[in-house]
Every structure is written in structure tokens, then in C-alpha cells.
Amino acid sequence: MTRKSVRSTEKQAVDSSTVDISVDREGQRAIRQAAVVDSGGDAPAFHLPDGRKMSIGERFQFALRVLPVDARADLGRNEKTLRTWKTADDMSLNVLIALAAKTGIPISWIVEGTLSIGTTRELVEEFSFVPKLLVEASAGAGALSQDVAFDADIVAFRSDWLRKLGINPRYARAMFARGDGMWPTINDGDLLLVDESITSVVDDGIYIIVSHGAVRVKRLQMRRDGSLLLKSDNTAYEAEVVPPPEINDVRVAARVRWYGRSI
In a 10 Å sphere around its CB, with 0-12 CB exposed, 13-18 middle and 19+ buried, how is residue 2 labelled? Predict the structure, then answer.
């Protein structure tokens, strides 16, 4: 089966209770609707069960068992952790993508139990996978944090949507806000999408700053006398003025371009 026919078959919605995935000698997977496995020649084969009757944890563990143990290290998590994943909250999207790519099982089957979303390649081309930072920006008086590091998890955004916001996906990062200093604009626990390519105050926008070990989210305004004004949207917090001699103690780390919350 050619690569083109594999892609076209993966896109079709499957109504039967089982799907047969055959692995040829070169490691290519051919997905076809079938009730009984027909391995054909020396190619091993297995049934892909009806994912609609399984939980996401069961589908993930099924796909994990397909992957040889010595290849699981490339997924980025240790074996013990992977075996404990039962719900979507446990799982990392980058691990799901890697597992789909290595097993040939469509990521749509792992995530939703169907084969109708599209191929892993198409998913990667359509979305940008934004790293989540292991830091929470305080919107109040500032919270001490350790050095900023990448979380093991990522957040997916449509690449075209990021570009409409003026963000190069390469410099996009995700983090959470803590505190009520930017309320009602930004709430405690909101997800922030920030642009790390912006490291100076270009206008009176909302920025992520680092000062004396604290990571904070504030409105910034450069004043004519060379001082920097740090403003909170919450009127319970007074604005802070950073005089020119202390400007170098405040580092602009990124600009906030979007925020989101659950309702």
C-alpha cells in the first residue's frame, strides 16, 4: 500500500467494531476496515478495537503495549509513569503525538476513539505546540520563583491563529497567572499565552517581568522622566514607580498576547 493510500484511509470514519493494522517489513502501517486479521505473508498484525467503547486510558495503554519496551524511552516519560496514565488530565499531548507516530495508530483513535480527525502529520502541520513554563506569574505583589524551566507538558494552538495575533510560534510560551492584581482583566488561574520575542516596553501593554527573583504580570508604562510605571488593573493595588537608576533591576521577559479561562 502506498503512503498516499494510507493517508486517505486514515481519514475515513470507521463504523465497524474492529480495525486491522498490518505492519510490513519496513515498518509502514496500513489501516483498513476489517473484522478478521489478515496478516498477509510475514507481516505481524493486530486488531485495533472499537475505541468508542474504551476510555482514553484504556486506548492509551493499548497503544503503549503495541510499542516495544525498549522504544518507550523516546516518549519522554519513564515506564512507571506511563503505566499510571488513566485520564486525559494525566496525559501530555507531546507524548500522545510521539506514541501515535511510533506505533502508526492515529492520534484521533487514542484521543477520541475514532479515525476521522486526520493523520498525525496533518495535526502537527496545523497546530503549534507551545511549551508550558514551570512558573506562575503573580498578578499581585509578586511571588518568589525558581529559575524558569520548561514543563514536560505543552499546549496546542492553531498556527494560523498565533500568527493572526502577531506571534511567531517559535517564541510562544504558556504559563498560569496567580493572584488578583490584574482582576478583572486576568483572573487567578488564567492561562496566559506570552510572546518571548518582546523583551522591552513597546507600548502600554501587559507584560511578564522578572524582578529580584519574582515573576509578575503587570501593565507597563514608560514615563517621560525615564521611570517605569508598574500598574495593576485591580484598584486595590497601588501603582509602583521604578526610578531610572533601578530600571535594570526589572527585566521584561515577555508580552502577554492572550489569556483564557474555564467557565
Answer: exposed
The bridge status of strand 191-195 relative to strand 172-178 is antiparallel
In this structure, what is the dihedral angle of CA atoms 3, 9, 11, 14, given to the nearest 10 degrees?
Answer: -150
* Alpha-helical regions (H) of the chain: 3-10, 56-66, 79-84, 93-103, 107-112, 120-126, 159-164
Return the C-alpha cell found at 199.
523583551
Give me the half-sphere count of Cα atoms (radius 13 Å) on the Cβ side of residue 158: 4
- Cα 55 to Cα 63: distance, rounded to the nearest angstrom: 13
For β-strands 127-138 and 172-178, DSSP reports them as parallel
pTM attached to this predicted model: 0.56
Q: CB of 19 within 8 A of CB of 115?
A: yes
Are 154 and 129 contacting, i.e. CB atoms less than 8 angstroms apart?
A: yes
- 136-194 residue pLDDT tens: 777 654 433 334 444 445 677 888 889 999 998 888 888 889 999 999 999 998 989 99
Looking at the DSSP assignment, which residues form a beta bridge with residue 46?
A: 21
CB 31, CB 21: distance < 8 Å:
yes
Chain length of the chain: 263
